[in-house]
Each structure stands twice: as C-alpha cells, then as structure tokens.
Amino acid sequence: MAIIIKKVSSKKELQTFIRFNYELYKDNPYSVPDLYDDMLNTFSPKKNAAFEFCEADYFLAYEGKKVVGRVAAIINHRANETWKKKEVRFGWIDFLDKPEISEALLGAVEEWGKERGMEAIVGPLGFTDMDAEGMLVEGFDQLGTMSTIYNYPYYQQHMERLGFEKEADWVEFKLTVPDKLPEKFIRISEIILEKYKLKIKKLKRSEIKSKNYGQKIFDLINEAYAPLYGYSQMTQGQINQYIKMYLPLIDLRMVSLVEDENENLVAVGISMPSLSEALQKAKGKMLPFGWFHLLKALFIKKPKVLDLLLVGVKPEYQSKGVNALLFYDLVPVYQQMGFKYGESNPELEMNKKVQAQWGAFEAVQHKRRRAYKKMLVAGKKEEN
C-alpha cells in the first residue's frame, strides 16, 4: 500500500503528530516521553519564541488510514544567517521500520526546503539548541533523559540507505558521584579561585529577578555556546520564556555560579534530579497523576540520578580550569542529597574542553547521537 504524506493543518492532526511517538515507544523501557502540553507549546507559533526567526510545518505519513510516521520541517533563519548556510532541518522524526515510510517523510522535508531555496537538509535538529537534537546511534540499552531523543536502532540504517552522511556527533557520559573529592582536585580548584580572583556564588530565589541573574545566566550561555555547531543566539523573547518556564523548577542548591571580583558572571552549572522515570510513569500527561510523579522526583523523594542540564564558561575563562570550580561546589551538594550518578547532556565529540571537565567523576561514555546531512542541489559544494 502506498505511503501518503499529509501536512498537519488542524489541532486534531497536531495531537496525532505528538501522540504517534507515545504509541511507537509505549512499551520501550529506555524511551522517556515528552509532556504532551510542552509539545503543544513547542509547536505553537504563539507559545514558542523561536518562531521569531523560524518557520516550520509538520507532516504525517499514512498507510491507508493508519499513521506510520511523522516529521517536522524547520528553517532556522537565524542559524542560517549566522553560519551562512541554506539548510532545512528535519526534527521530531519517527517511523515504522519500512524504507518507503522514511523515504516519503524525508522526501517531503526535502521538497519543502527546496521550495524555500534551501540547499541542504540536516537533522534531527529542533528549532534551536534548546530542543532535543541528534539521532541515537549508540546506547540503545540506556535510559534516556528528558532533554534528549530516543529512537530505535533501525533509524540509522534508514538514514544511510537514503544517502545521508554524518554531519556531527555528540557523546554523553554516565558520571559516578565520588564519595569524596580528590585532594588534588580540591587544591587545583582553590588555586584557580585565588589566581583569577574568583568566587563561588550560591543563587537565592529572590535574586533571579531582583538582581537579574536569570538574564545573566542566559546571556552567558549565549556567549559560551556561540561557536558550537548550528547554534543560534537566543533572542530576548526566548530568554524570557526559559526564565519563566525552567528556573522556578530548579532546586537552587543544584545551581553553581562563578563570579569575578567585580561580580561579573564567568561560569554557570545547572543540574536537577533526573525526571526520566517520573516522565515514564506520567506517560506524557500531567493529569490525573503525572504531576505527582514529577513533584515527587523534584521535591519529595529524589532519584539517585541527576541531570547536568547546562554548563557554560565565559570564553576568556575556558581552558583555565574554571569549570572545575562548578563541581568543587556541586559534588558535596550531590553527596548530601544522596545522588549516586549523573547524566551529562550531549557534547560535541570534538569538544575536548567540555569533556575534560568531568575530572571529579568516574566518567563512562555510554551514548552517542548524530546529525545527518544531505545536499539538495546537485553539484553544490558546501562553503567552509
């Protein structure tokens, strides 16, 4: 039976688009479902500030009346301008293990991109770096995190069959929280504090707004992440959105800031209890009991695993050991709170400066994910 591709054009179809992922992975012990309401907001131009500089459409694949796949087509104009590219992104891609389905879905994105003058297709990527990105290619037997993609092993085979090639890889680490910090790590951290006249700052809830620390944190992330693959600077609208959405949920004990002698922010580390198992129990829904599982993980009975959400260091302080100060502060907190393991966020495989920051932990690389790329214009050569 032929595969029919249909552009999402109603709220009901968007609901189907979101729920397809839940159905495809409902029996998988490693997949972590997104919250349904969060996904509705992500795909809404009225709710997602990324639409200030992005455009998107969403497609469903049908075999008869049965939905067999989904994909989002996205153009991030800000990223394209920054990196001097003409790329269409594919994201939120899921499909049954039939070659004709993935071919039809990605073909729809390719045509959509060509109609808008794009010269290459890349993904899986979201609207921005704050969305999940990268197709899982190693670590299928590892529990996912709330900020990453889980997919079946056959996805990679489909991408390669369709002529997509590796564009970038990210690696992830499982980190064992030590019983105590190594003496050498402590000494080095104290030397760095003194040498660069730095101090560790513990954030108070009132200071997020009164002293503008929410803004300072995301300004620093913008500066630190600017050179990274495909990054587009967060706009003020996005920053306001993230401050409102995420900072109220963070246990400030699990946030570490480093400032210079003039109270300028030079490094930030934000972590939180893993919500993976809570999200699995919630099954993508806040009601009737999803909220309880999430609140329990955040505030009542914390899991043994934490997620390292964001780590950023001002460019002029990178390669000076400043990121070690974050864990000089945070590891004792993790110990007191009973955490045994940490999950790093995806890090570009070539970013050795970031990977070197795990010196306080026993770190094991246990996942790898990949962005793929294919040129859309015959004979077109990419500019370096």
Automatic annotation (TrEMBL):
- Output the Gene Ontology terms for molecular function: transferase activity
What InterPro entries would the database entry show?
Acyl_CoA_acyltransferase, BcerS-like
**Superkingdom of origin:** Bacteria
Task: Give a yes or no for keyword Transferase in this entry.
Answer: yes
> Which stretch is the leader sequence?
none
In Swiss-Prot or TrEMBL terms, this protein is called N-acetyltransferase
**Keywords from the named record:** Transferase
The organism is: Phocaeicola coprocola
